[in-house]
Amino acid sequence: MTVHTSTALVTMVLNAGVSAEELARAAGLEPEVVATPTMITYAEGVRIWHAAERITGDPIIGLTAGARCRPDQIPVLGTLFGHCANLADALRRLARLMPTVIRGAPVSFDPDACAFWYESPSSTRHGVDAMFAAIVQLARQCAEAPISPREVQLQSAPPGRPEPYERFFGVRPRWRAE
Q: Taking the model in full, what pTM does it have?
């Protein structure tokens, strides 16, 4: 499985206060892999997130980074959320777009339930946390409204402290979900 290290992944990690050079070194990758859009393996993406956790000491780095996301930092997602008629339209388009960025991971959207699913190839926390936090954050910023999901289910094990997730999402996530 490959992941396109788009501006999105790197921007979210850099939002957490990590430099691109420091991140590449800690992940054991060449600096250009982190600094430029390129294809990397899923395992390399996981290494980037784990390196960011080690550097920052933040065990919920994905949530932290995604929650700081702004529409202008991730042009494709910012444009997608900012120019859709409504949240359902943005999520539908996102579900169509994501397989081009994360190949081999099922993504779907049910417009009737306004439910967005991403099946991660592993139960690794940070990338998925960052993605869902960024989606919610971008939706809030573009709608200029206090949007909260009705439910959040994550494949990962629960973190040591679930409170930051509850505060951010507005609901207590269910961990170890199918």
A: 0.84
